[in-house]
Write a structure and sequence with these properties.
The complex is a heterodimer.
Chain A lengths: L15 E7 L2 E7 L1 H6 L10 H8 L19 H7 L7 H4 L1 H11 L11 H25 L3 H24 L1
Helix pairs in contact in A: 6-7
Chain B lengths: L2 H4 L5 H4 L8 E10 L12 H16 L8 E4 L5 H9 L5 H4 L6 E4 L5 E5 L5 E8 L3 H18 L4 E2 L3 E2 L11 E8 L1 H5 L3 H9 L3 E4 L12 E6 L7 H29 L1 H17 L5 H16 L8 H10 L2 H8 L5 H17 L14
Antiparallel strand pairs in B: 1-5, 1-8, 2-3, 3-4, 4-5, 6-7, 8-10, 9-10
Helix pairs in contact in B: 4-13, 9-10, 10-11, 10-14, 11-12, 13-14
Classes of the chains: A mainly alpha, B alpha+beta.
Family (chain B): Belongs to the ATP:guanido phosphotransferase family.
Protein name (chain B): Protein arginine kinase
Pfam family, one (chain B): ATP-gua_Ptrans
Chain lengths: 169, 362
C-alpha cells in the first residue's frame, strides 16, 4: 500500500479498500476499520455499493410532485431519504417517482416471475366484492333499484363461486 | 438458548459430509415477502409487528419443512448468540438490530431459515452446501407456495412481490453461491472477472484487492436485479455465469501450479505446518490457512473425506463461534489462543500432505 489513503468518512487512515462494479462503473471506497465495521462493509453478506448507489438515484428533482401515501403516511421526502417504501399501497401512490428509478435498477419494469395464484385470486375476488358492495350501497341510497338488483346478483354469483371452490379444495 | 443448534450433528454447513465440492462452498436462495394491509416492518408499530409475527408463526408451524425446527425471538438472544447465527448465515445483521417483534425460524438441519420483521415481513432462505441452484429453488418455491396458502402476500401484477426496498421488487429473489476462488485472486484476475459478470447484472460481494487475502478467498456472487425477468431466467443466467467462473478458477489454479509449483506447494505445506503447530491465530490468518487447506483437498493432497473438516472449521473459527465455545467474555487475544488450540487439535488428526498426488496434475 504505497498511498496513504484516508477514510472517506472520518479521515483516519483507511485500511479497508472496497471495490465494486455497479452499472458498469468501478466504485472504490476507502474506509478505516471502525467505519467499515459500522457500515457493515466487512460483512460480505450485507453490503453492496449498489444499495448505496441506488439511493443516490433517488435524489429529488425540481418541481416533482409531493406525494403522501394515504395508507401509511410515507411522504416523498421520506422515500428520498431512506430509499424504502412504507407499505404495499405506497407502490400505487409513488408510481411517478418509482418508474424512472426502476428502469435504472432492474432488467425490466414489469414482473415476469412467479405469481402467488391462491393468495392473489383470493385478494382479487375480495377486492371485487368490496367494489360491488360499495356500488350496491350507493345504488340503494340513490334509489336506483334496477342497478342495485344487478349488483346484488353479481355479489351472489361471486360468493357462490368462492363457496364451490372451498368445497372442492 | 442456541446450544441445540450449535451442537446439532445434522447441520448442513458444518456437518455435511457427503456433498462437498471444489470451488463452490454453498448455494442459497432467499425470497422477500410481505403481508397486505400491514405497513412494512420499519413503519409498523409494535402491535402491528407482533400481529405479523403471530400470523406468520401460525402459518410456518403448519409447514412440514419446518417440522422439529426452532424459533428464536431476537430480543431474547444475547449479542454473542446473534453473532453466531450471523456467522452460520442463518440471520442477517439487519435482523440483529431490529426492534421488538422480530424473530427467526430455523429448521432441523439448518437449511431453511425464515426471518420475521427484518426489512420485509418475511425473509425466507434455503441453503445447501455445494452447487444446487435448481434444487434449492424447488424447495423454497414449495415452501413459499405453502405459506401463501394461508397468508395474503402483497403482490401486484405490474411490480410482482412488493418489498420495502424497490431493489428487491418483482421476484424478490436473491440467488447466490459462495465461491472459493484462490486461483483467481492469486493470479490477480478477480477484478477482471467481477467487471465482466457485473455487466450481466450480477454482484460480487466481499472485500478484495489488497485486502483480499484476509477473506479466505471466499466470494458471494448473486443477482442484482429482481424485476423484469422470471426466477428461471435469473437462475439460468446466474448458472451459466457461475459455471464460467468455476472454469476460470480451475484454469487459474492449474496455470499457477504449472508456473509456480514449488511456491504453491511451499505455501500449502507451510500452512499445514502452522495449523498443526501454531498457538496464536487470529481470524484472518486462520481463514487464509484454511483456504489453502481447501485447495489442498482439491489437489488431492488431503483426502476428500477431510473436506468437510475444513469447511466446518471455516465457520467454527469465526470470532463469534470461538467466543461461544470458550464461554462469554473472553478477550480477543485469548480468542486467538482458543482458535489455535481448536485448529491444532483438528489438524493433528489429519494425515500428512501427499505431495506426490500433485505430480500428475497440471
Amino acid at each position: 500500500m504505497a498511498e496513504n489513503l484516508k477514510c472517506s468518512h472520518c479521515n483516519n487512515p483507511a485500511t479497508v479498500h472496497l471495490t465494486q462494479i455497479v452499472n458498469n462503473k468501478i466504485i472504490k471506497v476507502d474506509l478505516c476499520e471502525s467505519c467499515a465495521q459500522a457500515k457493515g462493509v466487512t460483512d460480505p453478506e450485507g453490503f453492496s455499493l449498489a444499495d448505496l448507489l441506488s439511493k443516490t438515484n433517488l435524489t429529488p428533482e425540481k418541481g416533482e410532485p409531493q406525494i403522501t401515501c394515504p395508507d401509511c403516511g410515507l411522504s416523498s421526502a421520506d422515500f428520498r431519504r431512506t430509499g424504502r417504501l412504507g407499505c404495499a399501497a405506497c407502490y400505487q401512490s409513488f408510481v411517478p417517482l418509482l418508474r424512472p428509478v426502476l428502469e435504472d435498477m432492474h432488467a425490466g419494469v414489469v414482473h415476469k416471475g412467479k405469481v402467488p395464484e391462491i393468495a392473489f385470486s383470493r385478494q382479487s375476488s375480495e377486492a371485487e366484492l368490496q367494489t360491488l358492495e360499495n356500488a350496491l350501497q350507493r345504488a340503494i341510497e340513490e334509489e336506483a333499484y334496477e342497478d342495485a338488483a344487478k349488483y346484488r346478483d353479481q355479489i351472489h354469483a361471486i360468493k357462490q363461486a368462492a363457496e364451490a371452490e372451498a368445497v372442492e379444495s | 438458548m442456541i446450544e441445540s443448534l450449535i451442537n446439532s450433528d445434522n447441520a448442513e454447513l458444518t456437518q455435511s459430509t457427503k456433498k462437498g465440492a471444489p470451488v463452490v462452498l454453498s448455494t442459497r436462495v432467499r425470497l422477500a415477502r410481505n403481508i397486505v394491509g400491514t405497513p412494512f416492518p420499519e413503519r409498523a408499530n409494535s402491535s402491528q409487528r407482533s400481529d405479523v409475527m403471530t400470523r406468520c408463526a401460525e402459518q410456518i408451524a403448519d409447514l412440514t419443512q419446518m417440522k422439529h425446527g426452532v424459533f428464536y425471538d431476537i430480543a431474547e438472544l444475547s449479542d454473542l448468540e446473534k453473532q453466531v447465527l450471523v456467522e452460520r448465515h442463518l440471520i442477517s445483521r439487519e435482523l440483529c438490530e431490529s426492534k421488538s417483534g422480530s424473530g427467526v425460524f430455523i429448521n432441523k438441519d439448518q437449511t431453511c431459515s425464515v426471518m420475521i420483521n427484518e426489512e420485509d415481513h418475511l425473509r425466507i432462505q434455503f441453503l445447501k452446501s455445494g452447487f444446487s441452484l435448481r434444487s434449492v429453488w424447488k424447495q423454497i418455491d414449495r415452501f413459499d407456495t405453502g405459506l401463501e396458502d394461508g397468508l395474503d402476500v402483497a403482490f401486484s401484477q405490474e411490480f410482482g412481490y412488493l418489498t420495502a426496498c424497490p431493489t428487491n421488487l418483482g421476484t424478490a429473489m436473491r440467488a447466490s453461491v459462495m465461491l472459493h476462488l484462490p486461483g483467481l485472486v492469486i493470479s490477480e484476475h478477480m477484478e477482471k472477472v467481477i467487471r465482466a459478470v457485473n455487466q450481466l447484472g450480477i454482484t460480487v460481494r466481499g472485500l478484495f484487492g489488497e485486502g483480499s487475502d484476509a477473506t479466505g478467498h471466499v466470494f458471494q456472487i448473486s443477482n442484482q436485479q429482481t424485476l423484469g425477468e422470471s426466477e428461471q431466467e435469473i437462475m439460468s443466467r446466474l448458472g451459466s455465469v457461475f459455471k464460467t467462473i468455476i472454469d476460470h478458477e480451475i484454469n487459474a489454479r492449474f496455470k499457477y501450479l504449472e508456473e509456480n509449483r514449488a511456491r504453491l506447494l511451499d505455501q500449502i505445506g507451510r500452512a499445514f505446518g502452522v495449523l498443526q503447530n501454531a498457538h496464536v491465530l487470529n481470524s484472518n490468518e486462520a481463514m487464509n490457512l484454511l483456504s489453502l487447506m481447501r485447495l489442498a483437498v482439491d489437489f488431492e493432497m488431503l483426502p476428500e473425506a477431510n473436506r468437510s473438516d475444513v469447511d466446518r472449521l471455516f465457520i467454527e473459527c469465526q470470532p463469534g463461534h470461538i467466543q461461544y465455545s470458550a464461554g462469554e467474555g473472553i478477550e480477543p487475544e485469548a480468542r486467538d489462543l482458543c482458535r489455535a488450540d481448536i485448529l491444532r487439535e483438528n489438524f493433528a488428526r489429519l494425515p500428512s500432505l501427499d505431495f506426490d498426488k500433485v505430480k500428475d496434475l497440471g
